[in-house]
């Protein structure tokens, strides 16, 4: 993928009015379940905030889960019937997982669940196929016990695995807190479709880092997650989000004559705003 291809990606997206950073349910549930993971001796979100004073981990998780499911009523779960029943069934599994060491040994815990309970996890995670516990990695198993918005990149390869599915997300559990703050400020008020396009563009360094070309720029091969040559540039020393944003600005300028003026201005407004927010939050 060339620089101009990257600049053109998502150019037709429209941006809503910008506002201040919101208190997003995703961030709440990420922080709450990071505390759950920490109790199990695991890493949560780098951007997680401390729990409210006097609130237990279980109370925080339940409250965050309720808020998150409510926020997804017209989103992720808009077509689900009996959402309250699904939420209650998932909440009961979460409580059991906290009480029975499910976040310490997720595969062992999943192996003890009933077919109906596994079906609940399949539905919450929108998985196409029934869950085969024996075929799961530890990361894939662990993330089935977390709300989708709070799932983690356990092995830090840049991919978030849920069940047997691999997903790209930005910000993810490794994204520094100051970058998340900048992102939330820059995307506040943006439509979900426009935000998704920008999220994918922020993940392009992961994709391009795993494409090998020869000295003439011709494609040689691409690496898959788990391959010995797979790289996660976001976790490499010296990676700069501010430099990445500047590259997006430069690429968009390079494509300016081929981009409709309204799309160019909308795209440029976002990247400049995000760059300013990164600087204001002390991100590198």
Give a verbal description of the structure.
The protein has 284 residues and is mainly alpha-helical. It folds into two domains: 3-18 and 189-280, no CATH class; 25-156, no CATH class. The chain has twelve helices and four strands. The strands form two sheets. A two-stranded antiparallel ribbon has the order 1-2. Strands 3-4 form a two-stranded antiparallel sheet. It is globular. The two termini are 25 Å apart. The model is unreliable at 1-23 (pLDDT under 50).
What is the H/E string?
A: HHHHHHHEEHHHEEHH
Q: Helical segment tally?
A: 12
Counted up, domains total 2
Molecular shape? globular
Number of strands: 4
What is the distance, rounded to the nearest whole angstrom, between the alpha carbons of the first and last residues? 25 Å
Low-pLDDT segments: 1-23
Describe the main β-sheet briefly: 2 strands, antiparallel
Strand order of the largest sheet: 1-2
The whole-number mean of residue pLDDT values reads: 90
Instruction: Work out the helicity level.
Output: 40-55%
Whole-angstrom Rg:
20 Å
What proportion of the residues form beta strands (DSSP E)? under 5%
> What structural class results from the helix and strand content?
mainly alpha
Question: Topology of this protein?
Answer:
Elements: H1 3-8, H2 25-39, H3 57-71, H4 83-99, H5 106-111, H6 115-124, H7 138-144, E1 160-162, E2 165-167, H8 177-187, H9 192-202, H10 204-208, E3 211-213, E4 219-222, H11 241-254, H12 261-280
Antiparallel strand pairs: 1-2, 3-4
């Amino acid at each position: 993928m060339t620089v101009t291809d990257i600049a053109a990606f998502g150019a037709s997206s429209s941006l809503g009015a910008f506002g201040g950073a919101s208190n997003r349910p995703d961030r709440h549930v990420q922080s709450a379940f990071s505390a759950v993971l920490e109790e199990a001796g695991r890493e949560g979100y780098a951007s997680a905030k401390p729990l409210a004073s006097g609130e237990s981990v279980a109370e925080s998780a339940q409250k965050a889960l309720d808020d998150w499911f409510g926020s997804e009523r017209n989103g992720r779960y808009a077509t689900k019937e009996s959402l309250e029943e699904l939420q209650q069934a998932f909440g009961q599994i979460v409580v059991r997982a906290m009480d029975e060491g499910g976040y310490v040994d997720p595969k062992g815990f999943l192996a003890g669940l009933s077919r109906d309970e596994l079906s609940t996890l399949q539905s919450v995670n929108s998985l196409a196929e029934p869950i085969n516990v024996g075929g799961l990695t530890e990361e894939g198993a662990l993330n089935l016990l977390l709300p989708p918005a709070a799932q983690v990149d356990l092995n830090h390869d840049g991919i978030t695995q849920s069940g047997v599915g691999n997903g790209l997300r930005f910000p993810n559990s490794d994204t520094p807190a100051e970058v998340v703050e900048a992102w939330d400020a820059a995307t506040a008020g943006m439509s979900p479709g426009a935000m998704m396009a920008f999220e994918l563009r922020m993940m392009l360094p992961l994709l391009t880092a795993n494409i090998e070309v020869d000295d003439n720029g011709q494609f040689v091969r691409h690496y898959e997650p788990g391959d010995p040559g797979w790289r996660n540039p976001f976790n490499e020393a010296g990676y700069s989000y501010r430099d990445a944003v500047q590259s997006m600005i430069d690429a968009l300028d390079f494509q300016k004559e081929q981009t409709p003026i309204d799309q160019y201005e909308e795209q440029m407004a976002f990247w400049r705003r995000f760059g300013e927010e990164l600087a204001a939050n002390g991100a590198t």
